[in-house]
Amino acid sequence: MKKHNFSAGPCILPQSVLEKASEAVKNFNGLDLSLIEISHRSKPFVDVMERAQELALKHLNLQDKGYKALFLQGGASLEFLMVAYNLLEKKAAYLNTGTWSSKAIKEARLFGEIVEVASSKDQNFNYIPKNYAIPSDIDYFHCTSNNTIFGTQMQNFPEVSVPMVCDMSSDIFSRVLDFSKFDLIYAGAQKNMGPAGTTLVVVKEEILGKVSRTIPSMLDYKVHISKDSMFNTPAVFPVYVSMLTLDWLQELGGVANIEKHNTKKAEMMYGEIDRNPFFKGFVTNKEDRSKMNATFNLLDTSLEERFNTMCREAGINGLNGHRSVGGYRASMYNALPLESVKVLVDVMQTLEKQA
Length: 355
Ligand SMILES: *Cc1c(COP(=O)(O)O)cnc(C)c1O
Fold this sequence. Notes:
Homodimer. By secondary structure, the protein is α/β, with parallel strands linked by helices. Helices cover about 35% and strands about 15% of the residues. The protein folds into 2 domains: about 15-250, Aspartate Aminotransferase, domain 2, CATH 3.40.640.10; about 255-355, Aspartate Aminotransferase, domain 1. Helix 1 packs across helix 6 and helix 3 (about 75-85) crosses helix 4 (about 100-110). The structure holds pyridoxal-5'-phosphate (PLP).
């Protein structure tokens, strides 16, 4: 039996996707060849790349709006510096909502002046700062939509007159937003889309080509656009699995439908965290809670061993909190069934009854 996989990343993918992916490794599209042993420039793979790009734009409702979808390598972590390399001439503004934002700021500082418009570091990032001022003399504004480690999620995005860049690694394709507000979105595949090894970058072409520095080819979005994500050998397997996941999402009725499913899971999870006197949520501002990653603690830490054993026996995997937060983190990405949340809630209730 498949485990109830609450892993924060790499994380659960749809079982049907895993089955198709493993078949393609053995025999891709009935070609009697493996997906990973054919040329990335062959028609069957070019079709995969094109379909993945098309579906990514479609799910974000960004088709025919001047955006390009790229499947790059180097993870979201490389985007921290690629964004600055390509967009930062003098000054940019960043909202600091956690570890990943802090890392993005650190890299961007290598390229110019970075204004941190607000930070929730004072409370170990357990809330999303609000009512901050964003300077207007900046090249772009950068934020992180979902803070995977701390379990906070932005519900509102500021209105800015400069390009808005967003790290959506851990909530892309999980909810409907007006994605046209953003000029560059990036996401490592391994949270909600596919295996680690590729990063989706969706960029509005008109914001590129404005910095004066020379950009190395591999770090230049314009080069990747001109070569349709095939400047060098792309991560064929991760791109293929991402395409399968995006297809799966399409069959399920797209982002609007998966959002309903994600809301149900989050309501069930937070409902129990709030109700059960043995547990306490890490994020106290309810409107800042992430629907993807619910962080919580056991109030009596001496019960941890018992709770961990009960979880293990129920087939629950990946519930440990990040080392910088401790406690527990239930990651409820698109592919996690409601049933898995129900199993976790049952274990929490059993602990309450027995303790
Ligand atoms: C996991 C994660 C990253 C880092 O992604 P890599 O692909 O490992 O570089 C960056 N940002 C967010 C929000 C993440 O969740």
